[in-house]
Amino acid sequence: MRAPLWIERLALTRFRNHGALTVTLDARPVVLIGPNGAGKTNILEAVSLLAPGQGLRRAPYTDLAQAGGDGSWAVAARVHTKAGPVEIGTGVPAGAAGGRTARVVRIDGDDQSGSGALGTYVEMVWLTPAMDGLFTGPGSERRRFLDRLILSFDPGYRTRVGHFERAMRQRNRLLEDGVSQEARFEGLERVMAEAGVAIAAARAEAVARLQATIHARRARTPGSPFPWADLMLQGTLENDLRHHAAVEVEDGYVAALRAGRERDRAAGRALEGPHRSDLVVAHGPKGMAAQLSSTGEQKALLVGVVLAHAELVKQRQDATAPILLLDEIAAHLDDTRRAALYEEIVRIGSQAWMTGTDGTAFSAIMNDAQSISVGDVGIAPAASQRAVRSSAP
Known about the structure:
By secondary structure, the chain is of the alpha+beta class. The chain has helices spanning 40-48, 139-151, 157-176, 182-220, 236-241, 246-259, 261-267, 295-316, 335-348; strands at residues 6-15, 18-24, 30-33, 73-81, 84-92, 104-107, 110-111, 124-127, 229-234, 278-283, 288-289, 323-326, 353-356, 370-375, 378-381, 387-391. The protein contains 9 helices and 16 strands. The strands form 3 sheets. It has a 7-stranded antiparallel β-sheet with strand order 7-6-5-4-1-2-16, with helices on one face. A 6-stranded mixed β-sheet has the order 8-12-13-3-14-15, sandwiched between helices. A 3-stranded antiparallel β-sheet has the order 9-10-11. It starts with 5 loop residues before the first strand and ends with a strand.
């Protein structure tokens, strides 16, 4: 079945190591094959910028420009969506200064106020080598993973997070400046409470839905080589919401912020709130914390969670599967898990973009995919590639 969401044409201009590159595709999964340093991940990063946010590497936009150029870069694509084909363009013009420069976004030639508008058309889920430490790294990475899931079906979530973070920064500044007047804190702490409880509630709902999807996958494929995960959201607000109404939790958080001002002043930051919550993951079949599992088990567990994430997005987006970006996905999977992953990709119906150095690692999906050979100066067509154009810088 043809994927409702897929990229027909991708064009890069002065993006990372790609001076000028154009790829024409069909709706099948895409396999990018080439040596390390050829620019495979750069192509995936460019694709990720067709969705809201900073892309899969979260790099400053000015860092994406080709070395030695004028600082500009552009990504353009023709994307088939539920609403029909759309032309998406994004980039940074020449002369942009500062690592946090906002990127320009255009949809069908019309300028947009920000990348958030892309969420109406494009959903993406990705897995990169940097995420291999998701279970053992800082809680901020797991919160970011969860927040991306929520944005897939709640565009207003980003606004609530922004309100909370701005109020928290202003409160921290007051504490740092030695301010003690009650009136200066009251409004900020009320905003933190209202936005913070809304964030906690959205995360709790997302975890419950993701867990339900994981259980459904477990029931459908009990012998899957990707073990099922047991998820729990850990945090003061999340725990309070299990037992009290949201308005009561808001009042309780306001009181906690008021009582904790001097403690927070000494710490230099707010010590309670959704910015301190964590997603706790366990290896379901073994009943043990994910971080205590072997490296191979953690990778398999992570793939299972990402596939459940993609499936949940599909459920919430009227059966439209997200585009999957899977960087170096075959590197740490054995043949059984690779074959199982490829079967899942085809079943979900995603135009998955995968990278690797060895084409034989993708032999199990080649009948259902299109492959592209990525060389030192761009890309060249492989046997199943329909059309590719590339020019060196």
